[in-house]
Amino acid sequence: MTRLARQALVVIYQARLPADPTWPPGPLILQEGQIRSTAEARSEYYNDKAARVLYGSAERPRRWHDPSRRVMGGIEVVGVEALRASVAGPDAHGLVAVHLRPRHGSPIALLRALAGRRGAPRLDFDPQVLLDGQAVIESTGSPFTISFVAPGARGLPRLYRQPRYWRWAAARQWLWTLASRTTLADYPPDPGNLEPREDEIIRLSSDWHAVVLRDGMGVVGIRPDQGRDDKFFGYAELYLRSIYLDAILLGLMQQQGITHLEKRMAAALDSSLTATMADLEGRVSAFRHHLWAQHLTPHGIPNRVLTAYQRQHALRERFEQILLDISDFNRLNRDEENRYVNSAVVVFTLATVPTGIALALLQVLETHNPWLFAAVGFACALLTAVLLRTRSARVALRALRRRFTIT
């Protein structure tokens, strides 16, 4: 396993930001040749909506970076980034991206450790130490990883050497292993349905391919990497650590937002439904205008990366289900309100029509006889009682009673 000419790894953690970090604002700035991955350069690549979410503005930054490089065991730390995903405030939700480069061997053992696989070696670094109190890593599952390898002159070694995997190309073995963070000991793939499927592979170019799975993105160089003299793979690593990373970060924020909306939807059943749904509608509207996007840039690759992440987490279907649930509630609520109004009209009519008839009768008779007044009043009350005992009246009264009980 010594034929890898290039390795790159980005580990993305969910985190909380006690306050805005004191690091320099903006994304981590990397350089290859004359290209620098500044916020200004990336903003020209992405549309305005995506750029505001990913980078903020000079007055209101949303992203900060620590460019300090250090070595921890067999890992080189290239830099750290923090992105605030929610509005500013104490313990704001966010993401932390740690840029790494394995110094020895392959990244597979490190990926298995990050994924928490059984029997994986211990990590050589603690992400919380790298943050120096600027953010707090949340212990909610394993982090998302973006890993990239490019082969040396001898090509990529086969990871699955068993005869049943002979028809599985070495490049696809690496794509699957990097994205799934598994080996044969963790999960023996089915030889009859080898991953990744053809429609899951993102062909970044003829020289490198990628695949996005639920918790990882794997990128593999197809041809040998020439090392420092290979400008293409140098630019490829820069793009991976910048604009392709940004597409994944946006997908992770969308995942966080939709999960939060689903929790709010479930909580609506345990509270005042009308008030909670009104609040939820406001949150859905804010999410749609602030975070929800499927088209980031006229350049196609980031759109395909984001779409692949959304497909893995069924984000579109989940968001559509939230909209459908709110629409169903609003429809049922309108029907219920119409039913209450109709019930009130029925009760009002049954209670007042006999009275109107009695008053009209007394006016026609032009009498002041108290006995006649009493007789007409008694007849009016009797007729009202009879009408209120009809089926229509009982249904209307039950609806009104239920309305006032719920309120």
Descriptive overview:
The chain has 407 residues and is α+β, with helices and mostly antiparallel strands. It folds into two domains: 4-253, no CATH class; 334-406, no CATH class. Helices cover 48% and strands 17% of the residues. It is built from eleven helices and twelve strands. It has helices at residues 39-45, 48-55, 108-115, 127-131, 170-180, 231-268, 273-290, 300-312, 315-365, 370-388, 391-406, and strands at residues 4-17, 31-32, 35-36, 63-66, 70-72, 75-84, 92-102, 136-137, 144-151, 201-203, 208-212, 216-221. Strands 1, 4, 5, 6, 7, 8, 9, 10, 11 and 12 form a ten-stranded mixed beta sheet that branches. A two-stranded antiparallel sheet has the order 2-3. β2 and β3 form a beta hairpin. α6 packs parallel to α9 (315-365), α7 crosses α9 and α9 runs antiparallel to α10 (370-388). The relative contact order is 0.11.
